[in-house]
Specification:
There is one protein chain. Helix content is 34%, strand content 18%. The chain is an alpha+beta fold. Among the domains are: 53-191 and 344-349 and 389-408 and 443-490, Bira Bifunctional Protein, Domain 2 (BirA Bifunctional Protein, domain 2, 2-Layer Sandwich), CATH 3.30.930.10; 210-335, GAD-like domain (Gyrase A, domain 2), CATH 3.30.1360.30. An 8-stranded mixed sheet has the order 1-4-5-17-16-15-12-6, sandwiched between helices. Strands 7-8-11-9-10 form a 5-stranded antiparallel sheet, sandwiched between helices. The protein has a two-stranded antiparallel sheet with strand order 2-3. A hairpin with a 2-residue loop joins β15 and β16 (398-405). The chain is globular and about 85 Å long.
């Protein structure tokens, strides 16, 4: 009866006595990895779902990631410092979870979106190398790779630049992937600027496991007889396209699906040009001269011996980028199916500011990032052109981490506050403790935060972080197991000096 395929296959137990510690009801679903239970049922009975082998393996992976992180950073002379969970509300880009103060009526704490300000303060305090496996909470709309609370590997260092942070993070990733998942990474990771990423891939988190790079075609259509494209270029927009080698022979219905995809991303339409052994076929060919068609084929490297379907979009630059980025990701999904390779890269030099809905400016990431020295003169005249020492770590089309070199001088920080409409009085009220700390010899510093949940998801080759969190929330930020969030008794609300109007409406 020996079964060498089982861990206990050579163990035999002779029972002399048996004691029932507890009785179990019949589980509401089969506790196996092949279970067809719905997500709602799995989350309601999470304590049963976690018994499955795959879920136990996922929890073990998270533990191993945390252990290897502490091992590595401790070996690099970092020290782990815990920062507060009850903090002052400061704008960091997402909505805060608010906690009322019982002892100070009418005042509130916020739960931290990140340890951002505290780790900067630690740099001022002389803790030159800090890390923390930090819990972060953000009241955001959820999706497959986002939860209201997450854990991040939070790192900050003094007297450094990107050339110090990038190799450190790469060595950390190399260790974790090798020792936890048996995956060997090639380092250093490639580095591209944000502008190049948007031009070539239409996204700031490109998947490099496939090609399908976007090409600029505005010069070809400037003054063209194809008025729709020529007009877009004349108005300051762009014409760009993708060459899809496997796309020739697509039916009209298939092309319409692709057109619907780019329209959903804001584009006005999709133009196609097919080249194979039968020649060139395109609905827009009658509007183009031979020179324009030849230029397009040369631009994309397409010919009768190298068949391809060229997909073109015209319009405002931001719309063209978004629509072609969406199209590229859609086409690439089939190309990477079954590809378990890990393609990392760094995307850096992000814009520091983006237009706000009110006609002003808001931070692209957060307002504590150092602008490029060459762009500092533009802060007052052209904020949209100011780039920052901002960088993202990307793997297989997923942002794993973000970081920046921080501002460490009060006058520069106040200047950036002014761009987003925070005057000196408001800055002092909200960030006075940080600004004052900068006046006591704050060193140049910077860091990065890498999401543990997403990291585990990528390592396992999955697409949702929920199976790598012991007790996750639903898309409506609800915990089905214990029923959170819940209503609070009136006596407690009164003690906290809070009146809930929504409850009255429901009643």
């Amino acid at each position: 009866m020996v079964n060498s395929g089982m861990g206990t296959g050579e163990v035999e137990v002779e029972v002399s006595a048996a004691e029932v510690f507890n009785r179990s009801k019949v589980p509401p679903f089969n506790i196996t990895d092949k279970s067809q239970a719905s997500d709602e049922l799995r989350l309601k009975y999470r304590y049963l779902d976690l018994r499955r082998d795959s879920m136990q393996s996922n929890l073990r992976m998270r533990h191993d990631i945390a252990f290897k992180t502490r091992e590595f950073l401790s070996g690099e002379d970092f020290i782990e410092v815990e920062t507060p969970m009850l903090v002052r509300r400061t704008p960091e880009g997402a909505r805060d979870y608010i906690v009322p103060s019982r002892l100070q009526p009418g005042r509130f704490y916020a739960l931290p979106q990140s340890p951002q300000l505290y780790k900067q303060i630690l740099m001022v305090s002389g803790v030159d190398k800090y890390f923390q496996l930090a819990r972060c909470l953000r009241d955001e709309d959820l999706r497959a790779d986002r939860q209201p609370e997450h854990t991040q590997i939070d790192i900050e260092m003094s007297f450094i630049s990107e050339s110090d942070i990038f190799p450190l993070a790469e060595r950390l990733m190399k260790k974790i992937f090798s020792e936890v998942a048996g995956i060997e990474l090639e380092t250093p990771f490639p580095i591209i600027d944000y502008d190049e990423a948007m031009l070539k891939y239409g996204t700031d988190k490109p998947d490099l496991r496939f090609g399908l790079e976007i090409s600029e075609c505005s010069d070809i259509f400037r003054g063209s007889g194809f008025s729709a494209f020529a007009s877009a270029v004349e108005k300051g927009g762009a014409v760009r396209g993708i060459s899809w080698p496997g796309g020739t022979g697509q039916s009209k219905s298939q092309i319409k699906k692709l057109e619907k995809l780019v329209r959903g991303a804001g584009a006005g339409g999709l133009a196609t040009l097919s080249i194979d052994e039968n020649g060139v076929e395109s609905p827009i060919a009658k509007f183009l001269g031979e020179g324009e068609i030849s230029a397009l084929l040369e631009r994309f490297g397409a010919s009768a011996s190298s068949p391809s379907l060229i997909l073109l979009v015209a319009g405002e630059v931001a719309v063209v980028e978004k629509s072609l980025g969406t199209l590229r990701t859609h086409l690439g999904a089939e190309l990477v199916e079954g590809n378990s390779g890990m393609r990392f890269l760094w995307v850096n030099r992000f814009p520091l500011f983006v237009p706000s809905g009110s006609g002003g400016w808001e931070p692209a990431h957060h307002i504590f990032s150092m602008p490029l020295e060459a762009d500092i003169p533009r802060i007052d005249t052209d904020p949209g052109a100011v780039r920052g020492h901002l960088y993202d770590l990307v793997c297989n089309g997923t942002e794993l981490g973000s970081g920046s070199i921080r501002i460490h001088r009060r006058e520069l920080q106040e200047k950036l506050f002014g761009v987003i409409g925070i005057g000196q009085e408001e800055a002092e009220r909200k960030f006075g403790f940080l600004l004052e700390a900068f006046e006591y010899g704050a060193p140049p510093h910077g860091g990065i935060a890498i999401g543990v949940d997403r990291l585990a998801m990528i390592m396992a080759g999955e697409s949702s972080i929920r199976d790598f969190i012991a007790f996750p929330k639903t898309q409506s930020a609800t915990s089905l197991m214990e029923g959170a969030p819940s209503e609070i008794e009136e006596a407690i609300l009164e003690e906290l000096h809070i009146r809930v109007t929504e409850r009255n409406k429901r009643e």
